[in-house]
Amino acid sequence: MGTHDRESTGRKMRIPWWMLAVCASGLSLLSAGCESTCTTHRSAACYDTPVEPITSFRVVTVTGDDGTDGDILFCIELKSRGGDICRSLDTAVDDFRQNQTDIFDVGLTADAGDLDSFFLENQGGATFGNNEWKIVGLTVEAQTATDSFVIYDEPGITCGNVIDTGQTYRPMRCAW
Ligand SMILES: [Ca+2]
Ligand SMILES: [Ca+2]
To answer: 75 CA distance to ligand 1 centroid (A)?
Structure first.
């Protein structure tokens, strides 16, 4: 595991109560977590997970007009245990630049049928610029020993997609 990776065993509250209140009031000031300002996950599609064990994930992100030098984690949640397992998304090049597509191969595994969900988390820590990150596209592939399967595709993210330090991007809930 790299220095920025993280594992936890507890569940944490997804959205603070005050943000729900802000969302209910109709203010569009805070787009993150507010589903009323526009239709979230309009372009999203879930696909079946493989019947073989998942040996790694390929995560493809498209950054909008706000890039970041902060640490972005890819986290999975399994049906067989609580908490989440996270790995830092990082390649040899400068990731998450403005209007850039990045491809990450993530060394996380899951038994067949055990994947419950995944999400992205901004851990902050930017050296240059700021931590705020705007994601506009996300594709996740599950790789097995012999094949690769797209399990989630969201090519046009327009809501709740400005992710600052400590915030997460949660995809549409998939019935896996
Ligand atoms: Ca990098
Ligand atoms: Ca930024």
So the answer is: 18
Which domains can be identified in the chain, with CATH numbers? 38-169 (2.60.60.20)
Neighbouring C-beta atoms of residue 1, cutoff 10 Å: 11
CA of 133 to the centre of ligand 2 (A): 5
Element (H, E) at 118: strand 115-124
pLDDT digits over 18-35, tens only?
555 555 444 444 445 555
What pTM was estimated for this model as a whole?
Answer: 0.82
State the residue for tokens 């009031």.
25
CA of 57 to the centre of ligand 1 (A): 17
Residue 127: partners with Cβ closer than 8 Å, 6 or more residues away:
69
Taking every pair of Cα atoms in the chain, the longest distance, rounded to a whole number of angstroms, is 50
118: buried, middle or exposed (CB in 10 Å: 19+, 13-18, 0-12)? buried
